[in-house]
Amino acid sequence: MRPAMLYSDPTGRPPPARTEEIGNEAGRAMAREARLGEALTYLYATALQPCPYLPGQHERKLFTPLRGPQAVAQYGDLLKAGFRRSHTIAYRPACRTCRACVPLRVRVNDFEPGRSLRRVLKANADLTADAQPPAARAEHHALFLRYLRARHHDGEMASMDFDDYRAMVEESFVDTTLVAFHDSTAALVAVCLYDRVNDGFSGVYMFFDPARQRQSPGTTMILWLIARARALGLPYLYLGYWIEGRGNMAYKARFRPVEILGPDGWQRLEA
């Protein structure tokens, strides 16, 4: 990987001093800008590689490390700017010829499940959620592999061994939680890894028992995250990138109202 660009503030302003003592919105905006500028001081680009979502396309990502005492706050600012997290880095697509991947977030307080989503909740009413610190377990890794072989057997994650899985789950400098979902017989059905930032949750990765695919446990996990964010007074659930018309990505628009990030900032996605 090679450096891509160096962030600089076009106004030439230095980072604001003692921003924690500035109580007004302008002061908070300056603090966010300073954090984002610091995070993007080290911004790198990956080499071009085949796109995993669109045949014939090639992808490139920009990424920056997340570390130090400002990692949580910087990560929240980067999420608002369309980044995602993997391990200890934040990344976003930077493809030269394609803009299909669009950041998407659910407006938690305005969300109401429709008839089909209520059916999903009913079908998974036997599931219980156990939230815990992010730690890799052999049982979870076995389910992870079954999920990948059934749904993403040709993807780059399909060959991940336990050490790779442990790194995905445990390498984090931000506020990360793992939730294991079990049925009434105590069998493991699904696992969700998510991060908390100041304005919501960000779903990092979710996987489930492919034998229960018809009951949509993946959708159930998203509904659980929405309900949990609402209970904590958090306004957004960030679901990563949405590709219009692409089946394995388009499902994210089901949880309306949602917003997508475009040239004019976050805008509501109309039906």
In brief:
It is built from seven helices and 15 strands. The chain has 271 residues and is an alpha+beta fold. Helix 1 (25-39) packs across helix 2 (71-80).
Tell me what you see in this structure:
This protein has 271 residues and is of the alpha+beta class. It folds into two domains: 2-100, no CATH class; 104-240 and 248-261, Gcn5-related N-acetyltransferase (GNAT) (Aminopeptidase, 3-Layer(aba) Sandwich). Helix content is 28%, strand content 29%. It has an eight-stranded mixed sheet, with helices on both faces. The protein has a five-stranded antiparallel sheet with strand order 1-2-5-7-6, with helices on one face. The longest helix is centred in the first third of the chain and has 15 residues, at 25-39. The radius of gyration is 19 Å and the shape is globular. It starts with a strand and ends with a strand. Mean pLDDT is 85; it is low at 1-23.
